[in-house]
TrEMBL record:
SUPFAM superfamilies: P-loop containing nucleoside triphosphate hydrolases (SSF52540). This is Urea ABC transporter ATP-binding subunit UrtE. It comes from Haloferula chungangensis. The gene is urtE. InterPro entries: AAA+_ATPase (IPR003593), ABC_transporter-like_ATP-bd (IPR003439), ABC_transptr_urea_ATP-bd_UrtE (IPR017780), BCAA_Transport_ATP-bd_LivF (IPR052156), P-loop_NTPase (IPR027417). GO terms for molecular function: ATP binding. Keywords: Amino-acid transport, ATP-binding, Nucleotide-binding, Transport. The keyword Magnesium does not apply. Pfam families: ABC_tran. Residues 2-229 form the ABC transporter domain. Belongs to the ABC transporter superfamily. NCBIfam families: urea_trans_UrtE (TIGR03410). CDD domains: ABC_TM1139_LivF_branched.
Amino acid sequence: MITVENLEVAYGQSVVIPDISFSAEKGEILGIVGRNGMGKTTLFRALIGMIPAKSGEITVDGKKITKQPSFKRVANGVAFVPQGRMIFPYLSVYENLISGVRGRPNRTDVEEIYALFPVLQEMRNRKGGNLSGGQQQQLAIGRALMTKPSVLLLDEPTEGIQPSIIKDISRSLREIRDLKKLTIVVSEQVLSFVLDTCDSLTVIDKGKLTRRDRREDVDADKIKAMLAV
Ligand SMILES: Nc1ncnc2c1ncn2[C@@H]1O[C@H](COP(=O)(O)OP(=O)(O)OP(=O)(O)O)[C@@H](O)[C@H]1O
Protein backbone atom coordinates (compact mmCIF):
# COMPACT_ATOMS: atom_id res chain seq x y z
CA MET A 1 0.00 0.00 0.00
CA ILE A 2 1.16 3.54 -0.71
CA THR A 3 -0.04 6.68 1.04
CA VAL A 4 0.90 10.19 -0.07
CA GLU A 5 0.02 13.06 2.24
CA ASN A 6 0.25 16.73 1.31
CA LEU A 7 3.16 16.19 -1.06
CA GLU A 8 4.72 19.35 -2.45
CA VAL A 9 7.28 19.17 -5.26
CA ALA A 10 9.18 21.98 -6.95
CA TYR A 11 12.00 22.55 -9.40
CA GLY A 12 13.87 25.33 -7.57
CA GLN A 13 11.33 28.12 -7.03
CA SER A 14 8.85 26.63 -9.50
CA VAL A 15 6.23 24.62 -7.62
CA VAL A 16 4.80 21.95 -9.95
CA ILE A 17 2.89 19.96 -7.32
CA PRO A 18 1.51 22.24 -4.62
CA ASP A 19 -0.35 19.68 -2.52
CA ILE A 20 -1.21 16.09 -3.47
CA SER A 21 -2.70 13.42 -1.23
CA PHE A 22 -3.88 9.96 -2.24
CA SER A 23 -3.55 6.34 -1.30
CA ALA A 24 -3.71 3.04 -3.15
CA GLU A 25 -4.40 -0.24 -1.40
CA LYS A 26 -2.69 -3.61 -1.70
CA GLY A 27 -4.16 -5.27 -4.79
CA GLU A 28 -5.49 -1.99 -6.22
CA ILE A 29 -4.64 -0.46 -9.59
CA LEU A 30 -4.97 3.31 -9.47
CA GLY A 31 -4.82 5.38 -12.67
CA ILE A 32 -3.71 9.01 -12.66
CA VAL A 33 -4.83 10.67 -15.88
CA GLY A 34 -3.81 14.07 -17.08
CA ARG A 35 -2.73 16.05 -20.11
CA ASN A 36 0.84 16.90 -21.07
CA GLY A 37 2.66 18.92 -18.48
CA MET A 38 0.16 18.44 -15.65
CA GLY A 39 2.79 16.95 -13.33
CA LYS A 40 2.51 13.17 -13.74
CA THR A 41 6.22 12.58 -14.30
CA THR A 42 7.14 15.02 -11.56
CA LEU A 43 4.88 13.16 -9.12
CA PHE A 44 6.43 9.79 -9.96
CA ARG A 45 9.96 11.14 -9.80
CA ALA A 46 9.20 12.43 -6.32
CA LEU A 47 7.68 9.09 -5.30
CA ILE A 48 10.78 7.13 -6.35
CA GLY A 49 13.18 9.76 -4.97
CA MET A 50 14.63 11.28 -8.13
CA ILE A 51 13.41 14.71 -6.97
CA PRO A 52 13.18 15.60 -3.27
CA ALA A 53 9.78 16.40 -1.78
CA LYS A 54 9.59 19.98 -0.51
CA SER A 55 7.11 18.85 2.10
CA GLY A 56 4.63 16.08 2.81
CA GLU A 57 4.96 12.40 3.55
CA ILE A 58 5.15 9.21 1.45
CA THR A 59 4.47 5.95 3.25
CA VAL A 60 4.80 2.44 1.80
CA ASP A 61 3.42 -0.50 3.78
CA GLY A 62 3.62 1.56 6.96
CA LYS A 63 7.23 2.78 6.36
CA LYS A 64 7.96 6.45 5.82
CA ILE A 65 10.19 6.67 2.74
CA THR A 66 10.00 10.43 2.04
CA LYS A 67 13.61 11.18 2.96
CA GLN A 68 15.11 7.99 1.58
CA PRO A 69 17.36 7.84 -1.49
CA SER A 70 15.93 5.87 -4.44
CA PHE A 71 17.85 2.64 -3.76
CA LYS A 72 16.40 2.46 -0.25
CA ARG A 73 12.89 3.05 -1.60
CA VAL A 74 13.45 0.15 -3.98
CA ALA A 75 14.62 -2.00 -1.05
CA ASN A 76 11.43 -0.98 0.76
CA GLY A 77 9.28 -2.26 -2.08
CA VAL A 78 8.84 0.56 -4.60
CA ALA A 79 9.62 -0.05 -8.29
CA PHE A 80 9.40 2.48 -11.11
CA VAL A 81 8.86 2.01 -14.84
CA PRO A 82 9.78 5.43 -16.26
CA GLN A 83 8.25 7.21 -19.22
CA GLY A 84 10.20 6.21 -22.33
CA ARG A 85 11.05 2.88 -20.64
CA MET A 86 14.77 3.66 -20.33
CA ILE A 87 15.97 0.16 -20.99
CA PHE A 88 19.68 -0.30 -21.67
CA PRO A 89 19.91 -0.57 -25.48
CA TYR A 90 23.31 -2.27 -25.63
CA LEU A 91 22.60 -4.85 -22.93
CA SER A 92 20.77 -8.08 -23.73
CA VAL A 93 17.21 -8.67 -22.58
CA TYR A 94 18.52 -10.95 -19.81
CA GLU A 95 21.15 -8.39 -18.72
CA ASN A 96 18.47 -5.69 -18.63
CA LEU A 97 16.26 -7.88 -16.48
CA ILE A 98 18.92 -8.51 -13.86
CA SER A 99 20.38 -4.99 -13.96
CA GLY A 100 18.48 -3.82 -10.89
CA VAL A 101 19.09 -6.89 -8.76
CA ARG A 102 21.66 -6.74 -5.96
CA GLY A 103 23.83 -9.84 -5.75
CA ARG A 104 23.25 -12.98 -7.74
CA PRO A 105 19.92 -13.08 -9.60
CA ASN A 106 17.51 -15.84 -8.64
CA ARG A 107 16.72 -18.17 -11.58
CA THR A 108 13.12 -18.73 -10.54
CA ASP A 109 12.58 -14.96 -10.45
CA VAL A 110 13.82 -14.66 -14.03
CA GLU A 111 11.68 -17.63 -15.08
CA GLU A 112 8.64 -16.03 -13.48
CA ILE A 113 9.17 -12.94 -15.65
CA TYR A 114 9.58 -15.14 -18.75
CA ALA A 115 6.29 -16.86 -17.86
CA LEU A 116 4.57 -13.48 -17.69
CA PHE A 117 6.21 -12.19 -20.87
CA PRO A 118 7.17 -15.18 -23.06
CA VAL A 119 8.55 -12.89 -25.77
CA LEU A 120 11.33 -11.87 -23.37
CA GLN A 121 12.46 -15.48 -23.10
CA GLU A 122 12.48 -15.85 -26.88
CA MET A 123 14.54 -12.69 -27.16
CA ARG A 124 16.69 -13.11 -24.05
CA ASN A 125 19.98 -12.81 -25.95
CA ARG A 126 18.92 -9.89 -28.18
CA LYS A 127 20.07 -6.35 -27.41
CA GLY A 128 17.34 -4.34 -25.68
CA GLY A 129 17.65 -1.62 -28.32
CA ASN A 130 16.55 -4.07 -31.03
CA LEU A 131 13.17 -4.78 -29.41
CA SER A 132 9.93 -3.10 -30.50
CA GLY A 133 8.39 -0.43 -28.28
CA GLY A 134 5.88 -2.90 -26.82
CA GLN A 135 8.56 -5.49 -26.12
CA GLN A 136 10.73 -2.83 -24.48
CA GLN A 137 7.79 -1.88 -22.27
CA GLN A 138 7.38 -5.51 -21.22
CA LEU A 139 11.11 -5.62 -20.50
CA ALA A 140 10.90 -2.44 -18.41
CA ILE A 141 8.01 -3.92 -16.40
CA GLY A 142 9.86 -7.22 -16.02
CA ARG A 143 13.00 -5.43 -14.85
CA ALA A 144 10.96 -3.53 -12.26
CA LEU A 145 9.34 -6.76 -11.02
CA MET A 146 12.75 -8.38 -10.50
CA THR A 147 13.19 -6.21 -7.39
CA LYS A 148 10.04 -7.85 -5.88
CA PRO A 149 8.12 -4.65 -5.24
CA SER A 150 4.91 -4.24 -3.28
CA VAL A 151 4.20 -0.96 -5.11
CA LEU A 152 4.74 -0.64 -8.87
CA LEU A 153 4.74 2.83 -10.43
CA LEU A 154 4.36 3.22 -14.21
CA ASP A 155 4.65 6.55 -16.01
CA GLU A 156 2.70 6.64 -19.30
CA PRO A 157 3.33 3.01 -20.28
CA THR A 158 1.32 3.21 -23.53
CA GLU A 159 3.34 6.06 -25.02
CA GLY A 160 4.48 5.12 -28.53
CA ILE A 161 2.94 1.65 -28.39
CA GLN A 162 0.53 0.16 -30.91
CA PRO A 163 -3.09 -0.50 -29.80
CA SER A 164 -2.96 -4.33 -29.84
CA ILE A 165 0.09 -4.32 -27.56
CA ILE A 166 -1.55 -1.75 -25.27
CA LYS A 167 -4.28 -4.34 -24.62
CA ASP A 168 -1.59 -6.94 -23.78
CA ILE A 169 0.04 -4.57 -21.33
CA SER A 170 -3.29 -3.89 -19.67
CA ARG A 171 -3.90 -7.64 -19.31
CA SER A 172 -0.38 -8.23 -17.94
CA LEU A 173 -0.76 -5.54 -15.31
CA ARG A 174 -4.00 -7.06 -14.05
CA GLU A 175 -2.42 -10.51 -14.07
CA ILE A 176 0.58 -9.24 -12.09
CA ARG A 177 -1.74 -7.55 -9.61
CA ASP A 178 -3.74 -10.76 -9.11
CA LEU A 179 -0.65 -12.94 -8.87
CA LYS A 180 1.35 -10.78 -6.50
CA LYS A 181 -1.31 -8.64 -4.83
CA LEU A 182 0.68 -5.57 -5.83
CA THR A 183 -0.36 -1.97 -5.52
CA ILE A 184 -0.05 -0.44 -8.99
CA VAL A 185 -0.14 3.29 -9.72
CA VAL A 186 -0.11 4.19 -13.39
CA SER A 187 -0.15 7.62 -15.06
CA GLU A 188 -1.68 8.05 -18.50
CA GLN A 189 -3.07 10.38 -21.10
CA VAL A 190 -4.98 7.52 -22.76
CA LEU A 191 -8.30 7.17 -20.96
CA SER A 192 -9.34 3.89 -22.63
CA PHE A 193 -6.24 2.15 -21.24
CA VAL A 194 -7.01 3.41 -17.74
CA LEU A 195 -10.63 2.28 -18.01
CA ASP A 196 -9.46 -1.19 -19.15
CA THR A 197 -6.80 -1.54 -16.50
CA CYS A 198 -7.56 0.37 -13.32
CA ASP A 199 -9.87 -0.14 -10.36
CA SER A 200 -10.04 3.56 -9.70
CA LEU A 201 -9.04 6.72 -11.46
CA THR A 202 -7.99 10.18 -10.42
CA VAL A 203 -7.41 13.24 -12.61
CA ILE A 204 -4.32 15.43 -12.27
CA ASP A 205 -4.62 19.04 -13.35
CA LYS A 206 -1.83 21.58 -12.80
CA GLY A 207 -0.28 19.42 -10.09
CA LYS A 208 -3.54 18.84 -8.22
CA LEU A 209 -5.79 15.79 -8.08
CA THR A 210 -9.22 17.09 -9.01
CA ARG A 211 -11.45 14.01 -8.73
CA ARG A 212 -11.35 10.32 -7.93
CA ASP A 213 -13.84 7.66 -9.03
CA ARG A 214 -14.17 3.91 -8.87
CA ARG A 215 -14.00 2.56 -12.41
CA GLU A 216 -17.68 1.63 -12.42
CA ASP A 217 -18.62 5.21 -11.48
CA VAL A 218 -16.43 6.96 -14.06
CA ASP A 219 -18.21 9.45 -16.31
CA ALA A 220 -15.93 8.89 -19.32
CA ASP A 221 -17.32 11.83 -21.30
CA LYS A 222 -16.68 14.21 -18.43
CA ILE A 223 -13.11 12.99 -18.00
CA LYS A 224 -12.51 13.14 -21.76
CA ALA A 225 -13.69 16.74 -21.72
CA MET A 226 -11.24 17.51 -18.89
CA LEU A 227 -8.39 15.87 -20.83
CA ALA A 228 -9.27 17.77 -24.01
CA VAL A 229 -9.23 21.27 -22.46
N1 LIG B 1 13.46 19.81 -14.78
C1 LIG B 1 12.46 20.70 -14.77
N2 LIG B 1 12.67 21.99 -14.38
C2 LIG B 1 11.65 22.88 -14.35
N3 LIG B 1 10.38 22.62 -14.69
C3 LIG B 1 10.11 21.36 -15.09
C4 LIG B 1 11.12 20.33 -15.16
N4 LIG B 1 10.54 19.19 -15.59
C5 LIG B 1 9.23 19.48 -15.79
N5 LIG B 1 8.98 20.77 -15.49
C6 LIG B 1 7.68 21.44 -15.57
O1 LIG B 1 6.79 20.79 -14.67
C7 LIG B 1 5.48 20.73 -15.22
C8 LIG B 1 5.00 19.29 -15.15
O2 LIG B 1 5.81 18.48 -16.01
P1 LIG B 1 5.72 16.89 -16.00
O3 LIG B 1 6.78 16.38 -16.92
O4 LIG B 1 5.71 16.40 -14.62
O5 LIG B 1 4.28 16.67 -16.65
P2 LIG B 1 3.59 15.39 -17.24
O6 LIG B 1 2.18 15.44 -16.77
O7 LIG B 1 4.38 14.18 -16.91
O8 LIG B 1 3.61 15.65 -18.80
P3 LIG B 1 4.14 14.74 -20.00
O9 LIG B 1 2.95 13.96 -20.42
O10 LIG B 1 4.57 15.75 -21.01
O11 LIG B 1 5.27 13.90 -19.50
C9 LIG B 1 5.56 21.30 -16.63
O12 LIG B 1 5.11 22.62 -16.58
C10 LIG B 1 7.02 21.24 -16.94
O13 LIG B 1 7.40 22.29 -17.80
